[in-house]
């Protein structure tokens, strides 16, 4: 009986060793490859949109060859792979680590660009394609982060190949954030919180000068000041609106289109 037990334990031990060795062979898939070969493997995964395979190859490269140009570039491209794999937290942390470790890297602009894209996509999501007029309903903190990332890119690297796209996205984000502020101001106005409405409208005008929502912010100011029995301030807001946007619907008496008229703009 004891002999059978011994044989059984030996068989279990051999099976466990086989599994461990098999796992090691799988983990060491790239062990015999040079840094250049690992980098080429990761790039091939990227070209095939195999983001997980690319991340695995980049990580192996960084583990086996932690120094040198391939390791530096691997970290940057791994941030892109995480971004495309819809893993924003890992994309941001990897880009941040690259920015801290390689502040003089010639591709530093790309790290800021990846940060901006990651935050931008978190901010916009599917709403940009499905209902672009409702994007401003979302939380604005990530939008502000994306704006700051693109702003750093354009200020520090004005001639970067990514700067033109970053500037266009900044305009979109700026307009979306100003639209959000207008929504909040109008909400306070409907709730008869006139001081809060006026403060929010002023904030919009001061923070986003020239915004497409500037005229509507002046309308909020005019209405709020009238309700607060501040006729001089109300008249000032109206005069600024007349000077800058004489065709505004509030002045002409035209009825503005609602939400569904924007989504379905056909007669």
Automatic annotation (TrEMBL):
Q: Which GO terms describe its cellular component?
A: Bam protein complex
Pfam families registered for this protein in UniProt: YfiO (PF13525)
Q: What residues does the Outer membrane lipoprotein BamD-like domain cover?
A: 33-237
Primary localisation category: membrane
Keyword Oxidoreductase found? no
PROSITE patterns assigned to the protein according to its UniProt record, in alphabetical order: PROKAR_LIPOPROTEIN
Q: Name one GO biological process term.
A: protein insertion into membrane
Q: Which UniProt keywords apply?
A: Cell outer membrane, Lipoprotein, Membrane, Palmitate, Signal
Q: Where in the cell is it found?
A: Cell outer membrane
What does the record say about its membrane topology? Lipid-anchor
Q: How does it assemble?
A: Part of the Bam complex.
Query: Of which family is this protein a member?
Result: Belongs to the BamD family.
Q: What does this protein do?
A: Part of the outer membrane protein assembly complex, which is involved in assembly and insertion of beta-barrel proteins into the outer membrane.
Q: Which protein are we looking at?
A: Outer membrane protein assembly factor BamD
Q: Could you tell me which species this protein originates from?
A: Marinihelvus fidelis
């Amino acid at each position: 009986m004891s002999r059978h037990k011994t044989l059984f334990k030996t068989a279990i031990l051999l099976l466990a060793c086989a599994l461990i060795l098999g796992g090691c062979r799988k983990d060491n898939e790239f062990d015999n490859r040079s840094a250049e070969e690992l980098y080429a493997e990761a790039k091939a995964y990227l070209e095939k949109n195999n983001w997980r395979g690319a991340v695995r190859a980049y990580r192996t490269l960084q583990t086996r060859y932690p120094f040198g140009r391939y390791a530096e570039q691997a970290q940057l491209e791994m941030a892109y792979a995480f971004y495309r794999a819809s893993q924003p937290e890992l994309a941001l942390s990897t880009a941040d680590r690259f920015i801290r470790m390689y502040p003089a890297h010639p591709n530093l602009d790309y790290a800021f660009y990846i940060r901006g894209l990651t935050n931008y996509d978190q901010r916009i999501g599917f709403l940009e394609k499905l209902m672009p007029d409702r994007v401003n309903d979302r939380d604005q903190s990530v939008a502000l982060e994306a704006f700051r990332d693109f702003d750093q890119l354009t200020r520090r690297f004005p001639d970067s190949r990514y700067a033109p796209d970053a500037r266009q996205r900044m305009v979109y984000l700026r307009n979306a954030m100003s639209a959000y502020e207008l929504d909040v101001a109008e909400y306070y106005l409907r709730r008869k919180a006139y001081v809060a409405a006026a403060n929010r409208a002023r904030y919009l005008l001061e923070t986003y000068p020239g915004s497409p929502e500037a005229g509507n912010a002046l309308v909020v100011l005019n209405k709020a000041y009238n309700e607060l029995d501040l006729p001089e301030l109300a008249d000032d807001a109206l005069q600024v609106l007349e000077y800058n946007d004489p065709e505004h619907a509030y002045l002409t008496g035209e009825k503005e289109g609602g939400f569904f008229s924007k989504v379905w703009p056909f007669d």
